[in-house]
Backbone:
């Protein structure tokens, strides 16, 4: 089994180092191979996703990814900016199924912006379609407006689109995931305005016929943004397209108060996956040894479960993380009075010690 | 001066009746003319926005709008569903500038899902572009996918587009509004993924050159969804496109904990406007006399200020609403221990009494 390790930029290198440390004490045999991605790859090779990095990722069973991005690349042309690497990996590896759990850990309930009673015990699984929608839809670009009130004026445009098989395959993923959990899927759309999401709603409803044991509800995206704030625990599996999923998964992650704890997985039909923390590259704290490595360590656990068929090892890591929290160890982002503040390395070491 | 009164569906009729009551005691001379819209218009005339209603709205100086929608119309074809009325009014009246304040009233801080210290004193103005973007972009529809991995498969698609003059005019509105407030604009985009919003960002940056006294920051929409939860008070004017504005304005409204208090205005270049509460038609409580009329009453105040040039009268209404809250009167949605629960009519009467 081969794991491509792509630390990326900012805190990426620090947090991935801890996850690698954790993986290496598990007594499993896999090969790790590291490559540059994002800004780091641009500096070294002139492109955020060099051919060699892409090839490594394609040949691996799984990709362990840190984070990419830094303000200093803001003025590069879009095709060379760090985040193009992550979009490119998703596209080329066909990682259409993104899993983003929004979990509120018992000991961290107080860290949420929300009142504790609203988030205590929160456990939502957000499933976001990741290779379609307006993220990749062609045509797109700039032109002179071909029609409408502003015909002839300069305009920019993008195309939102979803085909039936794209919706079907992610709907199956959502219903199957719900089966293993609370058996409820909330499909989020904007069918009252968008053709694409009326179609989404229609196809999801059809696929649902194969899952009579799972409850399906449809919700407009604006309402979903509200319900997440009002009563997040009403959700079990929240399932949506690429664009809405981007917004809602970040909103939900922040609601937990501990985005530094949240892993994610992006899978293709062959079980290959890319695993990364839900948070970003945080250039402001990079290199200071204070970043929280737990989201990345938990992403490594997801990798073991989903792509490497090692669910026992995954569980061991997750249990170790919980026990480190119970021990009172906290990185700066989740620190509160009465707990022990530790750095990135110490947190990684503590997880290793528990294993 | 002529006001078109369009109560609509659900609680629309009840709450608009209270706003009309308030307007009628102000000793101002305007003509009110009522017409059906939404489901009510569909029942009566077979269309959610009949020609006669549209004409009335076009000829009026302002439209006082209740709310539209009911589950019972869910299976109508899209063109006949109630919300098409609101989309049609926006389009035909060219109401491109939508103002949605997200304010947390002192006495209602506890009603928020967020911890009180995060929302106490919250006062954000959300400015949403309302006639462009993927809401109206052509082409759209269903077809066989013309290209891509799923070429030949059935797909649905929509077009996101913004032309330079559309972005310019709403940017001017945002900067001018910020000048009268905290002098800070946060322009929300997804320039890292979408051509449309890279263009948005570029044009907004250009327009900003005319407003050196106003601070401009750019923020990605996913980050904005997070920052609203984490630190809503960091925003002054939050300014974005139609689709993102739909989602973020609802998220922000819910954060205040009292969406039943929040008015909105949608204006065109000629100062004509449509005024409506930020909340929906709430068919579950329709006809029970328990809905909160204050968002509609405050929308009437916005109408006096923005379209009818009666800012003194607007302020009188706003002061009356605050004093009714201070008096301890509350409809069910904002009720808490120690306050006095009242119905829709009593709340309207209380505002009238304060005038
Ligand atoms: C970096 C960006 C392109 C990306 C996205 O929008 O998908 C990120 O926000 C995410 O959610 O993984
Ligand atoms: C009813 C619907 C079409 C509308 C919108 O999406 O704009 C509503 O959600 C709103 O925000 O006014």
Residues:
């Amino acid at each position: 089994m081969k794991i491509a390790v792509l630390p990326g930029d900012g805190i990426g290198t620090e947090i991935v180092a801890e996850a690698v440390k954790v993986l290496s004490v598990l007594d499993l045999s896999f090969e790790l191979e590291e490559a540059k991605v994002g800004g780091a790859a641009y500096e070294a090779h002139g492109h955020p996703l060099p051919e060699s990095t892409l090839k490594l990722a394609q040949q691996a069973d799984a990709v362990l990814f840190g984070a990419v991005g830094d303000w200093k690349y803001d003025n590069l042309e879009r095709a060379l900016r760090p985040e193009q690497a992550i979009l490119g990996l998703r596209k080329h590896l066909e990682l259409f199924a993104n899993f983003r759990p929004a979990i509120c850990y018992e000991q961290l309930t107080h860290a949420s912006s929300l009142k504790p009673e609203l988030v205590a015990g929160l456990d939502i699984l957000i499933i976001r379609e990741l290779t379609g929608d307006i993220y990749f839809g062609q045509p797109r670009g700039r032109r002179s407006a071909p029609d409408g009130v502003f015909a002839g004026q300069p305009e920019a445009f993008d195309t939102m689109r979803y085909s039936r098989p794209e919706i079907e395959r992610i709907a199956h993923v959502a219903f199957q995931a719900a089966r293993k959990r609370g058996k409820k899927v909330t499909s989020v759309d904007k069918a009252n305005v968008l053709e694409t999401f009326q179609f989404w709603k229609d196809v999801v409803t059809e696929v649902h016929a194969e899952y009579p044991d799972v409850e399906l509800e449809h919700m407009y995206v604006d309402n979903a943004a509200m319900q997440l704030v009002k009563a997040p625990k009403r959700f079990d599996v929240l399932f949506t397209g690429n664009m809405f999923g981007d917004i809602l998964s970040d909103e939900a992650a922040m609601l937990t108060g501990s985005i530094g704890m949240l892993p994610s997985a992006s899978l293709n039909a062959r079980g290959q996956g890319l695993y990364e923390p839900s948070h970003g590259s945080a250039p402001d704290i990079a290199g200071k040894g204070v970043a929280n490595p737990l989201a990345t360590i938990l992403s490594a656990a997801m990798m073991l479960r989903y792509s490497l068929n090692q669910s026992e090892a995954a569980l061991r890591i997750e249990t170790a993380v919980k026990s480190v929290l119970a021990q009172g160890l906290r990185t700066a982002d989740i620190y509160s009075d009465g707990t022990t503040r530790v750095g990135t390395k110490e947190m990684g070491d503590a997880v290793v010690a528990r294993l």
